[in-house]
Amino acid sequence: ATPVNFWRPYAFLLLSNWINDLYQNTPFDLTSLGDN
């Protein structure tokens, strides 16, 4: 296994968790912005 394939799943998990935290801690609704 190459180093890239080794850290990629972890990077994806960290990014997913970070985005999830942003969604939960954002005072305004991000989905409403996309409807405009």
Notable characteristics:
36 residues; mainly alpha; 81% helix
Question: Care to describe what's here?
Answer:
It is a single chain. The chain is an all-alpha fold and 36 residues long. The chain is built from two helices and no strands. The protein has helices at residues 3-25, 30-35. The radius of gyration is 15 Å and the shape is elongated. The termini are far apart. The mean pLDDT is 77.
Question: Ends: how far apart?
Answer: 45 Å
Summed up, the helix count is 2
Shape: elongated
Provide the succession of SSEs.
HH
How is this fold's topology laid out?
Blueprint: H1 3-25, H2 30-35
Question: Short summary of the structure?
Answer:
This protein is an all-alpha fold and 36 residues long. It has 2 helices and no strands.
